[in-house]
From TrEMBL:
Residues reported to bind CoA: 17-18, 38, 72-75, 96-98, 104, 136-139
Protein name: Formyl-CoA:oxalate CoA-transferase
Phylogenetic lineage: Bacteria, Pseudomonadati, Pseudomonadota, Gammaproteobacteria, Enterobacterales
SUPFAM superfamilies on file: CoA-transferase family III (CaiB/BaiF)
GO molecular function, one term: formyl-CoA transferase activity
Domain of life: Bacteria
Record: residues binding substrate: 247-249
Active-site residue numbers: 168
Gene expressing this chain: frc
Naturally occurring in which organism (per UniProt): Atlantibacter subterraneus
Keyword Transferase in record: yes
EC number annotated for this UniProt entry: 2.8.3.16
Pfam families, per database record: CoA_transf_3 (PF02515)
InterPro entries in the record: CoA-transferase_III_domain (IPR050483), CoA-Trfase_fam_III (IPR003673), CoA-Trfase_III_dom3_sf (IPR044855), CoA-Trfase_III_dom_1_sf (IPR023606), Formyl_CoA_transfer (IPR017659)
Keywords for this protein: Transferase
One GO BP annotation of this record: oxalate catabolic process
Length: 415
């Protein structure tokens, strides 16, 4: 079976998470992704958060599957010459260096475009043009700058970052969309273009409901679905909403059987308006179904704390799985809070390829997250991440270097 991006060659000049998460997706779609790393150190994540001595870390392996890897010192004339040859030979160059690093290397957009007018240059930076454009960035920097931290956490607590890597992998996803679109547009124009994504913008895009709420708050002075609506106060910015639902259906995090000892014995429960009669039946409050004090969302809003407490009396009599099963018989939207331990063993996630085991030549078998986008004509076999410099020789051969020339480059520390 052919792959969606078969034939597309990508120079993967990325490191850490944001860039690698993008190029890994493109590799899973069938592109030939050539990861270029510094001689010696390589991608810093190879040796970060190590759990097995002398083996690439899970941090690295889980972001660099299905790629080829070469080492290259692009700050030598010979290294720069090889990079230039690759630019002539490939379709896309993806990078997430600090602002200005690629230019300082002599690889400006003008240079790339002159060498290969069909090439797409795709970059992730912490910030877009403006006062922070020269700043370096990591995940939580972006979560703070993109509006996630100020709107996450509990009512009276400090701003909070989320475990989902919306700044890094979120930027990778946005960049992948830009690259695929630029490849599509190239069919019509014959020319490449520059695709830029800032981590701040990516987080902001994922936080757009909070920008919606900022404007609602400015107009009306209240946000009815926020916990502050019941007995609290609003000021002039969107507050932290705890576990309240971000949408129009009130939601709550409710204890289930075993919560005293299991920190994840919880279920997230939504009071979807259409499901109100079913909710009342399940928890044994049939009198609430037609009662004017309860039967419309506006009547329930001021009593939400009491209603969730009553529902929780019911959920505490069930395990989170029993509750999920019973509630779904009535089409009541909810989810058990799943731990990573539960997710790693989840049969459905394994059957669908969303959780997969991979064999690595040094570290052996480990588990990773598979391709989240399922396509009927694009199956994905997840292969191990490359060892540092594993394909340097092969790739230089493809560029026309013979063994003697390659040995010379190695002696000079270029590769
Ligand atoms: N050969 C020679 N030099 C190389 C090289 C290679 N193959 N690969 C990288 N380098 C050089 C760079 O040119 C740069 O040199 P310079 O500072 O002299 O210009 C140097 O290595 C360091 O690169 P840099 O990107 O600045 O790394 P850093 O460790 O200082 O910063 C980040 C790391 C992540 C903070 C920074 O890259 C960044 O802000 N990136 C953009 C946002 C981003 O993606 N953040 C990470 C999200 S996971």
């Amino acid at each position: 079976m052919s792959k969606a991006l078969e034939g597309i060659k990508i120079i993967d000049f990325t490191h850490v998470q944001s860039g690698p998460s993008c190029t890994q997706l493109l590799a899973w779609l069938g592109a030939d992704v050539i990861k270029i790393e510094r001689v010696g150190d390589g991608d810093g994540t190879r040796k970060q958060l190590c759990d097995i001595a002398n083996a690439d870390s899970l941090y690295f392996t889980m972001l660099n599957h299905n790629k080829r890897a070469m080492t290259l010192n692009t700050k030598t004339p010979e290294g720069l010459d090889i990079l230039n040859r690759l630019i002539g030979h490939c379709d896309v160059l993806v990078e997430n260096f600090a602002p200005g690093a690629l230019d300082r290397m002599g690889v400006t957009w003008e240079h790339i475009h002159a060498l290969n007018p069909r090439m797409i240059l795709a970059s992730v930076k912490g910030f877009g043009p403006g006062r922070y454009q020269a700043c370096k960035a990591y995940e939580n920097v972006a979560q703070c700058a993109g509006g996630a931290a100020s709107t996450t956490g509990f009512e009276y607590g400090a701003p909070m970052v989320t475990g989902a890597q919306i700044g890094d992998s979120g930027s990778g996803l946005h960049l992948a969309l830009g690259i695929v679109s630029a490849l599509f547009q190239r069919h019509a124009t014959g020319r490449g273009q520059k695709v830029s994504v800032s981590m701040q913008d990516s987080v902001l895009n994922l936080c757009r409901v909070k920008l919606r709420d900022q404007q609602r708050l400015e107009r009306t002075g209240v946000l009815e679905e926020y916990p502050q609506f019941i007995g609290g106060e609003f000021n002039d910015t969107v507050p932290r909403a705890g576990n309240a639902s971000g949408g129009g259906q009130p939601g709550g995090m409710l204890k289930c059987k075993g919560w005293e000892t299991d920190p994840n014995a919880y279920i997230y429960f939504l009071i979807q308006a259409a499901a109100w009669p079913s909710i009342c039946k399940v928890i044994g409050e049939n009198s609430w179904i037609d009662n004017d004090d309860f039967n419309v969302p506006a009547a329930r809003l001021p009593k939400l704390n009491m209603i969730f407490k009553r529902i929780e009396q019911w959920t505490m009599t069930k395990t989170k799985y029993e509750a999920m099963e019973l509630l779904n018989q009535y089409d009541i939207p909810c989810s058990p809070v799943l731990s990573m331990k539960e997710i790693i063993n989840d049969e459905s996630l394994r059957a669908s390829g969303s959780i997969v085991d991979v064999d690595h030549p040094v570290r052996g078998k480990y588990t990773t997250v598979g391709m989240p986008v399922k396509m009927s004509a694009n199956t994905v076999d997840i292969t191990a991440s490359p060892l540092q410099g594993e394909h340097t020789h092969h790739i230089l051969h493809e560029l026309g270097f013979n063994d003697r020339a390659i040995a010379l480059l190695r002696n000079k520390g270029v590769i």
